[in-house]
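SAMPLE LOG
Freezer: B-3
Tube label: C17
Construct: single chain, 328 aa
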Amino acid sequence: MGDLPVIDYTLSFPYTRTTGPVMGPFLTALRDGQILGGRCGDRVLCPPLEYDPDTGAEVAPDLVPVGPGGTVTGSTWVSTPTEKHPFAEPFAFATIALDGADTPLIHAVKAPGPVEAGTRVMAQFRDERVGAITDVYFVPEADAVEQTIAPGDEPVEITEHLIGVRIQEDLYPFRKRYAQALLDGKILGQRSPKSGKVYVPSRGYDNMERVPMTEADDVFLPDIGTVVSFTEITPIQYHGQTETDPYIRCAILLDGADQPVTGIDIRDLRPPEFKVGLRLRCVWRPPAERDVSELDNRMGAIPEGVYERWEPTGEPDVNPDELRGQAW
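STRUCTURE (predicted):
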């Protein structure tokens, strides 16, 4: 089981908001190749704020150009950037006192090595700009190049961000055994040592009797079962959606199991041919084509990566009244 993949995925969603009377002009200026600060009493704040950070009082928008040069007042070196960082190569995050501003801006400095306090830096704007803080970055003053930037047509009034968290972890031991069984063309469940009920896929414990289950409780189940519930899905488009055609998602009670396997996708059958009580068997993919990368420690039963389809066995349907206790 050493070749099973490590769980590695990003849970994310798009976040959209209006920019407002201060951040809107600030982001618009970044898109157009300029950095703005906001007057607050006798100070200039950068980034500008809609309130006085000392008193909380509202500040009327009064934006003025700052930079594009500045002086580093402190920094930290990022030796191993992640996909969330602005550069693939090592870089510095620094506090930068921009010329004309009274508060430091924290931003990225693209440099060949760690950046010391007192280093003069200059703003550089990316070729493709969208009205975001990432439109700009800094370099040591000696490395700066002159840029000619054409302003955009409309002000930046909406900002969009993809908020997410990357999750990396090994499969739990019972999930590893389950995943390996799927790669072998088998379905592994566990029998509760207290109730005798068979769960598939197992959570590693009997959630009704609250007792753990170990490898000694593993049991193999046949890849034949009965449809206990289903729904027809017409995909709607949202971030990350890859489905385009209607399909059925169903729950199947495998022979010998006491709970149905949910989330089974059926793409070649439709009602009235497909119905509760229909007997189905799994048609596995060839061993070399089986993939369990969709599984993690929380979600996933029998992923499409291991089967080609579920097909009717030809046996008589089971009376739906006998399946009411298993409806999902």
